[in-house]
Design goal:
The protein is α+β, with helices and mostly antiparallel strands and 175 residues long. It folds into two domains: 1-40; 46-174, no CATH class. It is 34% helix and 23% strand. It has three helices and eight strands; from the N terminus they run H-E-E-H-E-E-E-H-E-E-E. It has helices at residues 2-40, 71-84, 138-144, and strands at residues 46-53, 56-62, 102-108, 121-127, 135-136, 151-152, 165-169, 172-174. The strands form two sheets. A six-stranded mixed β-sheet has the order 1-2-3-4-7-8, covered by helices on one side. A hairpin with a 2-residue loop joins strand 1 (46-53) and strand 2. It is elongated. The chain starts with a helix and ends with a strand.
């Protein structure tokens, strides 16, 4: 009789432990799914892929929303995030080649849309006119004294030359 009670107690304890483990696993799975869902609808743009070729940066950006109310405002936000290098899941590599001279951005609503549906729209951010081959850089020459060349490397970049850039959405100039 005593052995029967011990067996029943062990069996009950095993069932309780199994139930607790099952509940914890389900909670873990639900939490992961819920956090992905919250990110998918956070409304905060994020980069899902990037590549840079000859100083030109090509990005796939998700809006993390079911729609984009104001394309112009969204485009300006994304360009500013590129200039600030402030995307959540990815940082643009600027340590060796510096900031890009041009951006081409495909915008999707959700991560699942990337490369499966057409982008909602495309953003281009590029110099309004071609830069001079050599531009004097008086500050550099003054700071370096006789060693300075007085010439800045040719070309513009999105971080330092914002006033020289133009914004385009689907090839339409945005003032």
């Amino acid at each position: 009789m005593y052995r029967d009670r011990v067996k029943k107690s062990k069996k009950a304890l095993l069932m309780i432990i199994t139930a607790v483990i099952l509940i914890l696993v389900l909670l873990f799975l639900f939490k992961g799914r819920d956090s992905r869902r919250r990110a998918d609808y956070s409304g905060i743009p994020d980069v899902v892929s990037s590549r840079t070729v000859n100083g030109e940066c090509y990005l796939d950006v998700v809006a993390n929303s079911d729609r984009i109310e104001d394309e112009v405002e969204f485009a300006r936000t994304v360009v500013q995030m590129c200039r600030d290098n402030s995307f959540h899941s990815m940082r643009l590599s600027t340590d060796q080649t510096g900031y890009p001279s041009r951006l081409e951005i495909k915008v999707y609503l959700q991560r699942a849309d990337v490369n499966t549906v057409e982008p909602e729209f495309e953003i281009r951010y590029e110099p309004a006119e071609e830069p001079d081959e050599e531009k004097p850089d008086e500050e550099k020459a003054d700071a370096e004294g006789a060693k300075g060349t007085g010439v800045k490397e040719a070309g513009y970049n999105i971080k330092d030359d914002e006033e020289k850039y133009a914004l385009y959405i689907d090839d339409k100039d945005i003032p």
